[in-house]
Amino acid sequence: MPIRLEVWGDYALFSRPEMKTERVTYDVMTPSAARGILEAIFWHPGLCWRIDRIYVLNPIRFDSIRRNEVDSVINVSKIKSMAEGKGDGGAIYTSESIQQRSATVLRNVRYVIDAHFTIDCRKAAPEDSAEKFQSMFMRRAAKGQYFHHPYFGTREFPADFQLWKKNEDPIGFEQGHRDLGYMFFDFDYRNPASPKPLFFRAALNDGVLDVASAEVKS
């Protein structure tokens, strides 16, 4: 059952995994980021989102910014002690662990996500159905509800959304073919202990990224 959602925001960062220190975004939203937006609005263990197409409505523009990042993970034992009132009340991160790094991001982005879902009968309840899930998603999206605020690649770049209300198909920002090279598709979670990254050769045709026909490779 098809879903069509319009999403937009001031900035986006869909990080290329081959860039280690500096953050550099892909030219357009990745399928995994699109899936993350849909799951932020409605998630269920018996439902699996499948991205079909991503329409790029605004021209692709880049900005260079500087962001504060940390080079270490949170000390779990310290957080637990603070929650139990045993900590010293000090900062979670020290000033030495905070680093300022440059990032190449997208600005003024707007997309339309075409997607559908499948039902995992092993995790869905007997009373669950495609009609039920469809109705729940449409109702939540129409009211602007979500489990956590959707974002474009990183939580500091929130995404606004609404159901696509027009009867005609969205129109991409440009005509013609644009090769985007290899792009991250998603993770293969068939082995939860060691998920494998999947990639595909991405291209925009008349401003549309066709994900449904992508040849995915590990």
TrEMBL record:
EC top class, as a word: hydrolase
TM ranges: none
EC number(s) given by UniProt: 3.1.-.-
CDD domains per record: Cas5_I-C
N-terminal signal peptide: none
A Gene Ontology BP annotation from the UniProt entry: defense response to virus
Function statement: CRISPR (clustered regularly interspaced short palindromic repeat) is an adaptive immune system that provides protection against mobile genetic elements (viruses, transposable elements and conjugative plasmids). CRISPR clusters contain spacers, sequences complementary to antecedent mobile elements, and target invading nucleic acids. CRISPR clusters are transcribed and processed into CRISPR RNA (crRNA).
Record protein name field: pre-crRNA processing endonuclease
Species assigned in the record: Bifidobacterium saguini DSM 23967
Lineage: Bacteria, Bacillati, Actinomycetota, Actinomycetes, Bifidobacteriales
